[in-house]
Amino acid sequence: METLNFFFDNKHRPLRHAAHPRLVGVVSSGNLEVLIEPAPLNGGCEIEIRTAALGFGAIWQAVLEDFNERWQLADMRIAVNDMGATPAVVSLRLDQAVEAAINPASGARS
Q1: DSSP letter string, the chain
Q2: How far is CA 69 from CA 13, 28, 42, 72, 104, in A?
Q3: All structural domains of the chain with their residue ranges
Q4: Across 26-30, 32-36, 69-73, 94-98, least confident range
């Protein structure tokens, strides 16, 4: 297991409807779960990755920089439990988590 930590200093986009944590996805082979929750981070977005796939830090960095460009979240904490998901699946799950935070009726678990 490898743990990677990322921090993006955005100060742009607090999610006003994200008052409660939201969980999307499942931890299984080729998949991942994402927990997103508001946190007082001075406008930053903190992301912790726990992955079974070792040595892919540069790919995680690229995927998360792309995610950050799309959303520029402020005051959010994201935790990812990964079991070898591809970058495309990671991007989709991250977007799904943000959508669940914006729209609590989307079916995500809280």
Answers
A1: -EEEEEEEE--SEE-TT--S-EEEE--STT-EEEEEEE---TTEEEEEEEESSTT-HHHHHHHHHHHHHHH-EESEEEEEEESS--HHHHHHHHHHHHHHHH-GGGS-B-
A2: 12, 28, 18, 6, 23
A3: 2-102
A4: 26-30
CATH of domain 2-102: 3.30.230
Residue environment code for 25-50, b if the CB has 16+ CB neighbours within 10 A, otherwise e = beeeeebbbbbbbbeebebbbbbebe
76-104 tens-digit pLDDT: 999 999 999 999 999 999 999 999 988 86
pTM across the whole model: 0.88
Computed over its alpha carbons, how large is the radius of gyration of the chain?
Answer: 13
Write out pLDDT tens, residues 43-69.
999 999 999 999 999 999 999 999 999
Instruction: Say if residues 73 and 98 touch (Cβ distance below 8 Å).
Output: yes
